[in-house]
Specification:
InterPro entries: TMEM214. The structure is a single chain. The protein has 483 residues and is mostly helical. Helix content is 63%, strand content 2%. The protein contains 23 helices and four strands. The strands form two sheets. It has a two-stranded antiparallel sheet. Helix 6 crosses helix 11.
């Protein structure tokens, strides 16, 4: 309200030129008037003294709206929480509003929610069902499910789909058996243990013996159309895969001995089966691969059982090829480090003993002594055979007697051929040089056998007499002949 002060003067009347105040005059203070005006404006008081309704600030409007929304949200949460079971976790708003009471409620809800979640997780872990173990499938069970008609249809389709690509065709052929034996675990086909602990006779038909005759015939008939080059590449690929698995198992064995987790190994049934069928149907493929098989990665005591198994498979297809591979690849190993290993000698002997024990083996091998211009037992192989059969008395071992029993047959094959032929004249000169060298080593048994071979050379080639005269042991031999 506006303040006014009036002052009355006792002197004579005051006359104003413009208005008549009857002697009274209104006096105001300018400073206080300005102050009151400012206050009135802030509260919406008009300059004419009338008052207006003050307007609300926008900040307060937003606060009121947020408070109302917050109140509705809390009521909705309480209503929803009332219908939940004790095990259910209430859905909490992601928005957090100011206020101490609300913070305490949120913290309580968080604690309850986390507790229930932890209990739920622990319950799930405890109630997790045990993994059902798959039934073990044996090699025989998997082989029994292979249908020959389905295999034939598959191979026919492969020939059409991959025409002119024989290496891919062979891979697809292997894939078919890979799927057929995919359920067979490595424990059901422990080939490494089997090869190490079993005789050659026992592993000779592994794993071919598991499949039916119709499946085998369908397979080998299809293999017959493949070229030697494609089959050679496939044989090396298969062998590399087997030796890679061998390395894996050896590393796993070392790790397990140290207390670690052994490396798992996949079943190799399919690759052994397909490789065996290829070697039986086209055994000559291995002869072409001999230069590659002499590489270091295919040498060694640990790899010998696999190589021996391959030679046995080839001999099932052709006895002559089997003996050729034994004489040119396995027997020479005895001249190296493997010759001092009893297990190696035994394995080498088992392979040739199986070949020689086959029905009609003697006649087949003697008649096939020269095959495609090459001798089954070369002069170099005969030299090795002489030294393992007739060692010095101090170097005799258990294997010596076994070599002595098979030597006559192998010697007959080594010396077989058409008498007087150009080929026999050439080989007789090579054998004569070996006989002379062996006779001069000073081992009585070896010298005696070398002299008998030397006499044979004289009957095959008259040119051998020149070598006879120049020999230092001529007089000793001359005395033996006369005696």
């Amino acid at each position: 309200m506006e303040e006014e002060k009036s002052v009355q003067f006792s002197s004579g009347p005051i006359h104003h030129a413009e208005e008549n105040g009857h002697g009274w005059q209104k006096v105001t203070y300018a400073k206080k008037q300005r102050k009151n005006k400012t206050t009135a404006d802030s509260f919406g008081v008009a300059s004419n003294g009338s008052s207006a309704v003050p307007e609300k600030n926008n900040v307060f409007k937003n606060l009121e709206k947020n408070a109302e929304a917050r109140r509705r949200t809390l009521e909705a949460q309480r209503a929803a929480a009332a219908i939940y079971d004790e095990d259910d976790v209430p859905v909490r708003s992601k928005k957090r509003w100011g206020g101490e009471d609300e913070d305490e409620d949120d913290e309580g809800n968080d604690a309850d929610g986390n507790l229930k979640e932890n209990v739920s997780d622990e319950a799930k872990k405890k109630e997790k069902p045990k993994k059902v173990k798959k039934p073990k499938v044996t090699v025989a069970e998997a082989a029994a499910k292979i249908d020959a008609a389905d295999l034939a249809a598959f191979l026919s389709n492969v020939l059409v789909s991959y025409e002119g690509q024989q290496e891919i065709q062979l891979m697809r052929f292997a894939d078919y058996f890979g799927r057929a034996f995919s359920a067979v675990s490595a424990s059901q086909f422990p080939w490494l243990k089997l090869f190490r602990e079993s005789t050659v006779e026992k592993i000779a038909d592994v794993p071919v013996s598991y499949i039916s005759e119709t499946v085998y015939k369908t397979s080998v008939d299809w293999i017959n159309h493949c070229s030697y080059d494609a089959l050679g590449s496939f044989v090396l690929w298969s062998l590399d895969g087997i030796l890679a698995d061998l390395t894996t198992q050896q590393l796993g064995s070392k790790v397990s001995k140290k207390g670690g987790q052994p490396t798992s190994s996949k079943s190799q049934v399919a690759i052994f089966l397909v490789l065996a069928m290829v070697l039986r149907r086209k055994p000559d493929v291995v002869i072409n691969l001999l230069p590659s098989l002499r590489e270091n990665k295919y040498q060694g005591q640990d790899k010998l059982p696999v190589i021996a198994w391959m030679v046995v498979q080839a001999s099932r297809g052709d006895l002559a090829v089997g003996l050729y591979l034994w004489a040119h690849h396995i027997l020479p190993m005895l001249r190296g480090k493997l010759g001092s290993n009893p297990q190696s000698r035994d394995l080498v002997l088992q392979v040739v003993e199986r070949i020689l024990s086959a029905p009609k083996a003697h006649g087949i091998l003697v008649n096939s002594a020269v095959r495609k211009g090459e001798r089954l037992i070369s002069p170099a192989s005969l030299d090795t055979l002489l030294h393992v059969t007739f060692p010095a008395s101090s170097a005799r071992v258990k294997a010596t007697e076994r070599f002595e029993s098979i030597y006559p047959t192998l010697k007959e094959v080594a010396l077989a051929g058409a008498p007087g032929s150009k080929a026999m004249k050439q080989v007789s000169q090579q054998i004569q040089a070996i006989a002379v060298k062996s006779a001069e080593e000073g081992i009585p048994e070896l010298a005696e056998e070398a002299i008998s071979i030397f006499v044979w050379c004289l009957t095959q080639n008259p040119d051998c007499y020149r070598q006879w005269v120049s020999c230092s042991w001529y007089f000793a031999f001359h005395q033996v002949v006369h005696l």
